[in-house]
Amino acid sequence: MQDTTVRCDAVTMAAAEPAAASYDDELRRREALREAFGDSSESDSDAPREAASSPLVGRAGRERWRWVAVPGVRGLWLCADFLPSDDQLRLLAAIQREGWFSDASNQAMRFGDLPPWAVELSALVRECICIGDVDVGISPGWTNEDEDACPLPSDLLWREPLFDQLIANRYTPGEGICAHVDLMRFDDGIAIVSLESACVMNFSRECAAYDTQNTQKHGESESTNVPVYLNPGSLVVLSGDARYHWKHEINRKPGAQLWNGRELEQHRRTSVTLRKLKASPN
Ligand SMILES: O=C(O)CCC(=O)C(=O)O
Ligand SMILES: [Fe+2]
Question: Are 275 and 216 in contact (CB under 8 A)?
Fold first, then answer.
């Protein structure tokens, strides 16, 4: 067991030393560009500016951004089409180039000085939250103008840096992550990008059980479960209730990955989780 990211199967971890964070500057964006496209794209003066400023997503991706509030879990938002397929491949290639994963290691953590592609990804998460369409769906009592009707409260959205910690997880078929709430040393506002195999992430909340007079049954509780389908290229954002009061879990044991009554085919899955460390008390 490590961190709160309790993998259901044995994993090892390649952790880096914390390093000083310098976040969103132009130099890093350029490095990210080189990383994703190679040197040639920078010297290509005919390249459109939009493409040059964001290697992980083209304009087509941006136009599709649509946020859905997951019914029943306050603070849980899904953007299913965050990364189009070619951008997913580019992100995977950038992760692959880090050389983090091997037979013995399927998780990597980085603190502070994130790789350029992760800095770029963080900026893209912010942009997606800012400009993506919002659909509050059947969330009771919300309108699209509500403070709640935004994937991240503005104090989290505009903090600097937005994220300074990442975990990349690689799951082979059958491997998942046990139910957990992320450690309290991480601040509110967590983003998870899914790549490769689709999966169902289950959110569960312990609720006290009540009898017919609505009095709590001694020592009893019931669990509310909300399954969320995470397709490759999707982004989920957790804050508030979803981050602190709901556990999340991916159970990929045979028979457990059910969606619309059918079992999902399992392949390798890679995810990138972005978080922000809480300031340490001096
Ligand atoms: O792999 C995922 O999608 C979730 C990872 C996670 O929950 C974590 O690292 O805390
Ligand atoms: Fe987690």
Answer: no
255 within domain boundaries: yes
Atom of ligand 1 nearest to the CA of 167: 9
| CATH number assigned to the domain comprising residue 218 | 2.60.120.590
Nearest to 270 by CA among 93, 82, 121: 93
- 40-75 residue pLDDT tens: 333 333 333 333 345 566 656 677 899 999 999 999
Give yes or no for a contact between 225 and 204, defined as CB atoms under 8 angstroms apart.
Answer: yes
For residue 7, being part of any structural domain is answered with no
Cα-based angle 32, 164, 100 (whole degrees, multiple of 5): 65
State the burial class of residue 113 (Cβ atoms within 10 Å of its Cβ: 0-12, 13-18, 19+): middle
Q: Quick check: CB of 5 below 6 Å from ligand 1?
A: yes
| Structural domain containing residue 100 | 13-36+54-275
Q: CA separation (Å) from 9 to 136, 146, 199, 253? A: 36, 41, 17, 10
Return the residue whose CA atom lies nearest to atom 3 of ligand 1: 271
Q: 274 CA to middle of ligand 2, Å?
A: 10
Per DSSP, the chain holds a count of helices (H) and strands (E) of 8, 15
| 3-class secondary structure, 194 | strand
How large is the average pLDDT for residues 134-149? 66
Q: Is the CB of 169 under 6 A from ligand 1?
A: yes
Number of domains in the chain: 1
- 257, 266 in Cβ contact below 8 A? yes
Above 0.90 for ipTM, yes or no? yes
